[in-house]
Amino acid sequence: MLFFLILTISSSVTESVTFEITHQWSYINFTWESSIVYAEAIKSRQYIPEHVAMTGIKFYRSRWYIALPKFRPGVPVTLAYISANESQTNPLLTPYPDWKSNTDPTCEGVKAVQSFEIDRNGVLWVLDGFRLTPATTCPTKLICYDLKTHRRIRSFTFPKTIGLRRGGFFNDIVVDDSGYVYITDASFIDPGLIVFSVRENRAWKFRDGSMFPQMRAANFVVDDMVFTQLGTINGIALTPRGRNPRMLLYCSLVGFSVFGISTEILKREDLLSSGDWRANVTYLGDKQAQGDGMAMDELGNLYYGLLPLYGVGKWKVLGGIPPEILYQNRSTMIWPDSFAFDNQGYTYVLADSIHKFADSNVRLVLNDKIQFRIFKFFTGTKSYLF
Predict the structure, then answer these.
(1) Of 34, 41, 134, 350, which is most buried with the most CB atoms under 10 A?
(2) Which residues form the signal peptide (predicted)?
């Protein structure tokens, strides 16, 4: 049996951390192949500007890579990038790896991406597993690109027993350099934690009650909207390299509690034949509020969004240090979602108002109001990958 520290939560607010907006968008547009193609996309409603949302962000070699899931019709691109030195407001996104891959009508293309990770070797691990809308009926996939050559180097199709073609929601991903990848499936139908073995080129899925919503956390308010969806397992983080056994942390969108499980347990597909592995799921404590994405740095600090508090928290979960609120802003930190790190000691968070795009009852209007913001703040650390 593996034992980890359980912390009773109290929290404080830190005033000394400065958050700066690096990029922001009122709507998302692209570097189209020509003005004729652009005009046709508008006319045919292949592109509906107010329907395009961004969720995942990662930084690599002076580029921001961005995921654009297809919550609404009219989203022509699902994976893109911008140069870090682009203009601050409404910079155009370039499809990655190209237009063809994003618009390929067959299942060979990149169909609907919610998130991704970039490992230490410059490999982009893409979760092509957003299957909540009719945008595609293609199977869920894990696609890898070498960011040095921009070539696809791996594509794995998940069996339907792991990732649903209709109802699958591959939400977030972390990469373990021992040869495994861990993925949260936030499906309302079949939520769980997916393990992919790089060496064996196969996957399996762990399912547990800790991966379901907590009703005491339901119906919270963000930006004057009551969020009623019962979101399942969502945010995921991996403890740093060199600290064995490593631990995988996760939390439901509708939930306060953070849980952890040793990666040594997750690597053993044979444990799925019985429920004994569930004894290794550890309750680590509660966050101050409901949150979406989270990420861990090289020192074991967990960063996470606080949705109804319009803030970002920090917590050394396994270090006995109480959590703190680093930043709050009711006007700009609306739905803090994805986190990223650079190599200069900065951590980034994307606030994306995604609750509006996910609710089909919300009428989206094209105007000058900023919808998406990338913030940076100095931590002096790199990601868990280093």
Answers:
(1) 350
(2) 1-16
Is residue 258 within 8 Å of 244, Cβ to Cβ? no
Handedness of CA 252, 258, 263, 265 (dihedral sign): negative
What is the sign of the dihedral through the CA atoms of 215, 216, 217 and 223? positive
Which tokens hold the place of 6?
A: 């359980």
Strand order across the 282-286 sheet: 233-238, 247-252, 257-262, 282-286
Instruction: Work out whether strand 170-176 and strand 372-378 pair parallel, antiparallel, or are unpaired.
Output: unpaired
**Taking Cα atoms as reference points, which of 174, 89, 190, 170 lies closest to residue 130?**
170
pTM above 0.85? Answer: yes
- Helices first, then strands: H and E counts in the chain: 4, 27
Matching residue, tokens 């439901």: 252
Reduce the DSSP state of residue 176 to 3 states and report it.
strand
Q: What is the DSSP string of 203-226?
A: EEEE--GGGSPPGGG-SEEETTEE
pLDDT tens digit string along 169-207? 999 999 999 999 999 999 999 999 999 999 999 999 999
Query: What's the rounded mean pLDDT across residues 220-248?
Result: 95
Read off the pLDDT of residues 95-143 as tens digits, 9 standing for 90 and up: 999 999 999 999 999 999 999 999 999 999 999 999 999 999 999 999 9
CA distance 152 to 317: 36
Cis peptide before 49 (omega within 30 of 0): no
Q: How many CA atoms lie within 13 A of 42 on its CB side?
A: 11
CA–CA separation, 337 vs 33, rounded Å? 30
Token duo for residue 297:
């740095």
Model confidence at 7: pLDDT above 90: no
Which residues, 6 or more positions from 363, have their beta carbon under 8 angstroms from its beta carbon?
none
Task: Compute the distance between CA of residue 306 and CA of residue 326 in angstroms, rounded to an integer.
Answer: 10
CA distance 8 to 287: 10
> Rounded to whole angstroms, how far apart are CA atoms 335 and 367?
19
Token pair in block for residue 333: 């930190």
* CA dist., res. 263 & res. 286, Å (int): 21
Q: Which domains does the chain have, with CATH numbers?
A: 19-378 (2.120.10.30)
Determine which helix (DSSP H) or strand (DSSP E) holds 264, and give its type and residue range: helix 263-266
